[in-house]
Amino acid sequence: MSQTVTMDKIVAFCKRRGFVYQSSEIYGGIRSSYDYGPLGVELKRNIKEEWWRRIVHMRDDVVGLEAAIIMHPKVWEASGHVMGFNDMLVESRTSGRRYRADHLIEEATGMEVEGLSPEELTKIIQTDERVKDPSDGGRDFTPVRPFNLMFETYTGPVKTPENIAYLRPETAQGMFVNFKNVLQTSRVKVPFGIAQMGKSFRNEITPGNFIFRTREFEQMELEFFVEPGTDREWHEYWIEERLEWYLDLGLNPENLRKREQSDDERAHYAARGVDIEYNFPFRGWSELEGIANRTDYDLKKHAAYSGENLEYFDQATNRRYFPYVIEPAAGPDRIMLAFLVDSYVEEEVEGEKRTVLKLHPRLAPVKAAVFPLSKKEPISTIARQLYDELKGDYRIFYDDSGSIGRRYRRQDEAGTPFCVTVDFDTIDDKQVTIRDRDTMKQERVSIDTVREKLQGLISC
Ligand code: GAP
Predict the structure, then answer these.
(1) Is the Cβ–Cβ distance between 173 and 267 less than 8 Å?
(2) Which residue puts its alpha carbon closest to atom 22 of ligand 1?
(3) Rounded CA separation 129/316 (Å)
(4) Is the distance from the beta carbon of residue 172 to the nearest atom of ligand 1 less than 6 Å?
(5) Rounded to an integer, what distance in angstroms lies between the CA atom of residue 271 and that of residue 426?
(6) pLDDT 10s digits, 389-419
């Protein structure tokens, strides 16, 4: 990773190259909402597809699910979110700004205050002179109060309390409430998992750091159901398996670590939690994914609230039990930011600056670009035919404008791992050159073998 990657640089780069735009920009933008442009949508889709491939398609003990975003409101009562999915909110009377009390204190004093009560946080804010309103230095704050992060809405035309519904704050509950459906309709046996990815919503008090923390975001979650007593071993397995996924996709191991969650920060349902963190140059070690041992908390709660029997009957041992759940829960938006930062390199090549995204070919938004050296016949027809042959397999880009050097630079910035050039010699020898983004080395190959060759290079 280049040492010069700053948040400003990444944000400007993402906009200039069509990865990420501020949402509703022509109206001045809306805080913490972002739109993924032509390259960004491909990169994020590839991250999600790689997750799905590894978690669902490559295994025979995990099945997929797509649950609704708006679920029965009782789901969120049973899960504990209505009562307990809170952040601690404090308001500055001098500026009118709102802050997360724990963040305000931690940033001013370095103290670890996660898990403290509103009263304890209020006392620290009132007595510790180091805690000031970052916007104006004021020290006049309201008492700290819990603020529920769930977005409320109404189902149907009447806005009455009975019609309140929530936008899901995690995808996980979709798996728990469908546990019985999946058991009855597929041939799964414990240990097995249900995976889902999709949008979640949290009314974060202080969203920020670009796509790292937003109010609307995506999650990729697996609920892996195991026999009680085997949960610790499975937890270790999933921590290592998830770490491997990042490394296999080329994330620099020096920027990746696992961290044990403290008792105070762990979610109410978790017996143990381990985070996979990335060392962002602009915010230090930060969570990409949490892997929790959720015990049998959720299934038991839903059984109690719904009246359904959600126990598992183990035919081999003739035993009924509530399975324990190991949950790797990741966020593709954050993961995309990590891959962007990790792969962004500025280097000098023959006296010229080159910006390149050294993304793993599986993640690269565009897998290959086809360049005819001339717009004239027969070169352009040969190049078009090659493009048409390749384009069904992946996102392929055709570019016949500008010097070849400029075309290479454009694709380097987009992270395109291979550029295929059709030149004047191709007319006679039926060969083209494939140029590697990272080494910039060129190899001459028969045009008939390009598709097969690229398939080998991309799926490595
Ligand atoms: N079901 C467990 C759960 O939701 P979490 O740690 O709150 O756990 C899992 O969320 C992942 O979702 C996080 O590691 C992060 O990658 C992503 N995530 C959570 N809140 C987010 C936000 N406001 N913006 C972007 N990603 C978020």
Answers:
(1) no
(2) 213
(3) 63
(4) yes
(5) 63
(6) 999 889 999 999 999 999 999 999 999 999 9
Q: Whose CA is nearest to atom 16 of ligand 1?
A: 331
Ligand 1 site, residue 331, Cβ cutoff 6 A: yes
Report the chain (460 residues): mean pLDDT per 10 consecutive residues.
Answer: 77 97 96 96 98 98 98 97 94 96 94 91 96 96 97 95 96 98 95 98 94 97 98 98 98 97 88 97 95 98 98 96 98 98 94 95 98 95 97 94 95 98 96 98 97 92
**Cα angle: 69, vertex 73, 75; to 5 degrees:** 80
Atom of ligand 1 at shortest distance to CA of 329?
A: 9
How many whole angstroms from 219 Cα to the centroid of ligand 1?
A: 7
- Which tokens is 460 given? 């490595």
Q: What's the rounded Cα separation, in Å, for the pair 51 and 43?
A: 13
Handedness of CA 242, 247, 251, 257 (dihedral sign): positive
Q: Is the CB of 287 under 6 A from ligand 1?
A: yes
Say what the pTM is: 0.95
Counting ligand 1 atoms within 8 A of each CB, the residue from 85, 194, 287, 327 with the most, and so the one to mutate, is: 287
The answer to whether the CB of 124 is under 6 A from ligand 1 is no
Cβ–ligand 1 contact at 334 (below 6 Å): yes
- Ligand 1 atom closest to Cα of 221? 1
